[in-house]
Amino acid sequence: MTTDLEAVFRAVKRWARVLDTETVPVLEAFDRVSSRSLRASHHMPRSNISALDGFVLEGKGSTFFRVGTQEMDAPPMRLKEGQAVFVPTGAPLPRNGRFVMAEHVIEEGMEIRTRITGDERKEWEKGSWLRKGTLVVEKGQRITAAVMENLALAGMGTVEVYRRPRVAVMTTGDEIKSGTVPDSNRCLLAGLVQEDRGIVDHVPTAPDRVQDMAEALKATLSSDLLVITGGTAKGKKDITREALRWVGARFLVDKPRITPGKTMAFGLVGKTPFFLLPGNPKSIRTLYEMFVRPCLMYLCGVQGEGQQGRYGE
Description:
The protein is an alpha+beta fold. Helices cover about 25% and strands about 25% of the residues. Strand 17 (about 265-270) and strand 18 (about 270-275) form a beta hairpin. The protein is rod-shaped, with a radius of gyration of 31 Å. Residues about 305-313 have low confidence and may be disordered.
């Protein structure tokens, strides 16, 4: 059995499978991972629109007759000589006429008067927010607030993402089961898993009895990943490996020649990959960063972020 550092990376790469996908509303997609690359199917805005409230006036005079309002969802109007139309911010600009800001006109009924002779328009040009064909999100990219905005601009109400992994966290030991020692490793791992988009499946602390621990392990088989701490050394109560074998675990890497981590293991219980970590909190943090986090990123479908280069080969 290979027991070096590379063996752990290779085993995780081979046996950790990218999860299936689900469709979620864009409003609920923050920090999820897109399972598809998506491009904008149209320009946004779809036409030139006004960046100010004001009036569009057709003609050279100072007095005009108001014929209405340019609605946001209506096609751009065309004005006749002497006509004026109110244009709110964000509405399409009429096809002809000059723009005068709202504070530079006097309204008296339907009559519009101004001394401004120039064009004061400020506009957002067609496609200035998002151009047709722009890559909105890449496959394997984390969805940020900016990506959510662009998905909405592209007219997408939902997005296909990878499912969040369910991670069973299991601690072991009579001293934890009895409450003599605080179950701080569970809290540490639960926090780390949630930071990395995982959903924690809490498994009751297993006592130092092989059969009881094996029964607890059976409850984890529906999870996407199992992380176990404790019982990895050579003491009489260090029986976690024996309990794993009791439920048919396959050890792919065991006791690699790395420090910390020389008592850790990686393998499969059924189809569920597992990490067996020592009970030392400092070792847990280090080994989580080295192996568990990249594994979670891989399950989530993340490309590049948080992964060791060896995982992406």
